[in-house]
Amino acid sequence: RLELGEHGLLAGELGDLIRRHPLRERLRAAHMRALYGAGRASEALDSYQDLRRGLGEDLGLEPGPELAALQREILRQDPTLRAVPAPMSAPRRHTNLPVPATALVGRSDSVHEVRALVAAGRLVTLTGPGGVGKTRLAVEVASGLTGSYPDGVWLVELAAHAFSTESGATTTGDELAEVVAATLGVRDDAGRSGPLPRTLLDRLSDALRAQRLLLVLDNCEHVIEAAAGLARALLRHAPGVRILATSQEPLSISGEQVWPVPLLDLPPDSDDQAVLRASSAVRLFVDRAAAASPGFALTDDNARAIASICRRLDGIPLALELASTRVRVLGAREVARRLDDRFRLLTGGHRGVPARQQTLRAMIDWSWELLTAAEQVVLRRLAVHSDGCTLEAAEAVCAGAGVKPAEVLDLLTRLVDRSLVLVAHDADGTRYRLLESVSAYLLERLRETEHERVRRAHAYYYVAFAERTDPFLRGADQQRRLRVLDAETANIRSALDSAAADGDGHLMRRLVHAMAWYWFLRGRLSEARRYLAMALALPGDSSGGGEGEEDSAAGRVPDRSGTVAWHTGMSLLSGVPDGPARHSQALLEVYEGIRDPHERVRAGWLLAYAVTRFGDFAVGTELLNRMLTESRALGDRWGLAAGLSTRGMQTYVCGELNASRRDGEESLELFQEAGDRWGQLQATAVLGRLAEIEGDYPQAARLHREGARMAEELGLWTDASMRWSELGRITLLTGDHAGAEEFHERARRLAIEQGDQPAEEYAELGLALGARRQGRLDRAESYLRRWLEWNRQFDAEYGTALILAELGFVAELRGDAKTALALHREGLVAARDTGDPRAIALALEGLAGARALAGRPLQAARLLGVASAARASVDAPLPAAERGDVDRITAALRAALGEARFEAEFELGTALNPDDAELLDT
After folding, report:
1. Domain interval for residue 850
2. Under a CB-based contact definition with an 8 Å cutoff, are residues 215 and 550 in contact?
3. Do 363 and 381 belong together in one domain?
């Protein structure tokens, strides 16, 4: 816990233990380290002297050498004593670059040249025909730059996410922004200020404004206009972002540096091995042939044939790799002879196609023709997948036409051996992918034969897959299932686009309902809204089934009212309410219109959560009460847990602390039973705040620490930021100013990375509280002033009341009674608007300090009494660590009035109503 930076918390806990065991040296050493880390060096030295006296008087001994050495380190302020707090969980990844299975051959000069271009300019585009090695070169360039970009180096594969154009639509910049945001972990549900609605591309640009990272945008030619718009926006608004793009054509925007990727060096007409090895094309061919046929090497016997192959294939890397796999069966000379025969047939053909494209096409054609019929079936059908697939998906989609599902694995293995399919392994399993040039060729083959049937099979598989996965997102396997769906994002988008293009409303509704909770957990609100709206625009599929009936793939079709509810909730959370979301009361009708009771509970929770965040507590409470009643009647324990956690936070905000605790504890128990970590995160949030109010700081820290860990594991970065801030506040209350600042700075950085202004505000208010406690009043005011107008703009009474109270205390500490009075009066008005007795009490305490400074101690004493009664009304007296301002004001009033008079006036105040308007003028 010292490594976590919890010096202040630990100092208090160890102090209690030391009082019970005053002569234990290891305990004393930990206490001294905690005190020193909390900035209380003199107390750490006093603790040492206390032990020394105790040992001498009771045992006639001196402290041991280790403790004496620790005392000397404290005296000289040894920097090793102040350890940097360790991360709460595994650090965030800073790259998603794949680890290449083979070495890059013949490109060392190119790598150095492109890296120099990236260092000099903000947009570099590698251009060239398919198969020339643009992606492989870009990955190699980027992998050597990971240490140069503190916020990471990220590969975004645009070909896999090219949105369907079958309906005539083209991919937009916002749709590409969704892909980039998902890759970077930038959530679309982070709170922001400014006019609404704003595009996702705008919000992504804001989130990246303060970051330094390298984006590798791969295969831009598929979405060239949208990619150009994306790059233009990021370069304009995010000065720390650099882009390395690959494309068959330039993006053609200002500042772009175009670098054509050269073909590999061709060998001369020679059989001299030394001369041939100077050719990068020869080196690549020999390297890959040796991998396919162990023992293969360049020899005098095969040198001329290898040189001929490399020249015939124009030094195109992909063509050379495909040809190299044939050496094991045919030998180099036979491969060369067959290539000569094949290219003679091409002479004069395809006159409109560039020669190099003819070369690659011929090589892929030859590889295709050498496959068995079964291999061709599997390979052709594999092309319907976006961004690869699992073995299970391949068995489901690629089987048929004489191929059994059990045979697919063996066929895939043979295709991998022929370099036509790539295979990648990770913790979640194995994926099979196609190179872009091969995929484009196979899609042509698929369209010639069975494209529509295979496309429908693909869509139905991923609908069923999403439906099977959805329940696990609310249980113990939540984290892994989220990763599994992450990997299938492109395939699911493809299935959604297929259903939309076919006008299949039933299939569309099944898939959006299965994906809705995933979209919510991942913060992909724009994507959710778009596809839910598309589903609502479709009347149904061609089979004409009714609402709630089974469709042609034996799956139950959710009724349309449930889709309306999910779309309404996502719209509210996005800050762009439309349809029923424009009128809060209409949400109750949406809820009651959902036919399936379990769907009503889940979608009803989202509506309640969303409308509460949007600011309508009354409708949110009514929805919560309805869905909670139904959850208990149905025995829906997840729905009950979700509703209780949200109601617990509502009652906490309203100052109903006992009710909040009951709901929070029951919710946590239910979520722990289910193993739902997202749910536990929600429940521990309110319980941690309640523990803080009660002064149980170790318990509050434990709950927030667990919450931060769960939030980071699930990629809930806004929640993680808020938990870091909560830990900062707890640490501040224990007197560890340095540790508190570290926690708050971490929270602030994470909020800025997400472009989340409420979380950034929460962190900076924590920094302001710490600065004021340390007497750094100017710094405190600078943080507070920044956020005052922001809160006023959005009618955020809680934030406004807190900031005005803190600014009032700053003015009071400066001796400016007039300004302090004005600020606290305004703060009391805002606090009353919240309806929270604790907020009202804080404003009254501030007003008491201002009155005392203005020479009106009688009124000040009464105000303290009113504040005390307000806190007592919700069983939330100020814990000792939070009494600094009240104790300071009380001491001044006791000195001015005397003990008896102060107590009498204080007692008079406890009988007054905190809502009396006269309190503003006392």
Report:
1. 775-922
2. no
3. no
Domain boundary among the residues 260, 290, 314 is at 260
State the Cα–Cα distance between residues 452 and 459, nearest whole angstrom.
Answer: 11
Place of tokens 């920097």: 79
273-282, 379-388, 766-775, 794-803: the lowest-pLDDT one? 794-803
DSSP single-letter state for residue 264: P
Please indicate, yes or no, whether residues 351 and 408 belong to a single structural domain of this protein: no
User: Cα–Cα distances in Å, from 180 out to 158, 164, 245, 750?
Assistant: 9, 18, 13, 18
- Please state the rounded mean pLDDT for residues 745-749: 94
Q: Report the pLDDT averaged over residues 131-146.
A: 95
Sheet holding 241-247, edge to edge: 153-157, 213-218, 241-247, 123-127, 256-260
**Which amino acid is present at 263?**
L
* Same structural domain, 808 and 786: yes
Is the distance from CB of 135 to CB of 246 less than 8 angstroms?
yes
Mean pLDDT of 566-579: 83
Q: Are residues 915 and 855 in the same domain?
A: yes
Strands 389-390 and 429-433: antiparallel
Q: Which of 119, 153, 121, 116 is closest to 257 using CA atoms?
A: 121
CA distance 334 to 417: 19
Task: Kindly state whether residue 600 falls inside one of the protein's structural domains.
Answer: yes
The answer to whether 890 touches 845, Cβ cutoff 8 Å, is no
- 290: helix, coil or strand? helix
pLDDT, averaged across the chain:
88
- Look at the chain and count its residues: 922
Dist CA 543 CA 559 (whole Å):
16
Return the structure tokens found at 540: 């149904």
CA distance 707 to 678: 9
Residues 244 and 324 in one domain: no
Domain count, the chain: 6
- SS3 category, 126: strand
pTM of the model: 0.84
Asked if residue 696 belongs to a domain, the reply is no
Q: Does the structure show a pLDDT above 80 at 549?
A: no
Q: Hunting for tokens 């929600």 — which residue is that?
A: 682
Average pLDDT for residues 528-557, to the nearest whole number? 68
310-355 pLDDT, tens digit each: 999 999 999 999 999 999 989 999 999 998 887 765 444 444 445 5
846-890 pLDDT tens trace: 999 999 999 999 999 999 999 999 999 988 889 888 999 999 999
377: in domain: yes
Residue 3 has pLDDT above 60, yes or no: no
State how far the alpha carbon of 534 is from the alpha carbons of 169, 457, 531, 558, 586, in Å. Answer: 13, 21, 5, 15, 21
Side chain identity at 588, as an amino acid letter? Answer: L
Least confident among 425-429, 620-624, 751-755, 898-902:
425-429
Average pLDDT over residues 115-119: 97
